[in-house]
Amino acid sequence: MPMVSDWKLEVMCKMLLEKIWQDKSSVIQEACSILQKRYQADSGKGAELFTIQKKIAKTEEKISNLIDLRTEGDISIEEYQSRRNKLNKELSCYERQLQEQKKEEKTPPKTGLNWDKINETLKNVIDFSKPKIDNDIVEKFIARIIPMGSNHFVWLVNLSNLKTEDLRF
Known about the structure:
Elements: H1 6-20, H2 24-38, H3 45-72, H4 77-106, H5 115-125, H6 135-141, E1 142-149, E2 152-158, E3 164-168
Antiparallel strand pairs: 1-2, 2-3
């Protein structure tokens, strides 16, 4: 099998990716809209919310166990009421904290991402007008190239991470 020049493979790769990605602008717009819908500023509030919810669940479990102890007759009514009042105060405190966290979470963050810059970066990443295509793009979408002889190649393209398609050039 004769050697194949890098530039020939690069030209074939460029043509292949241009053929697959004909409408780049709609792909970029869709990616940006998905990012904007799913983006949440990392404020650490999610972890605090989770911690408070865990404390509420634990306190509710303690109340349930306390009721079981009273039902079984293991503790007196006075001790039950004392412990129950303490746990109710704890629970209401956690629930107030939870409500405050949820209110804070609804207010949009003042600092955010520069969506124009993200859009421009995505355009640059899949810009195939450059002489050489970014190796990360090639590695992501081209699974394998099989030479078949006399300048004939089978390109195995991975478009879905589930199934590899073969395209013949």
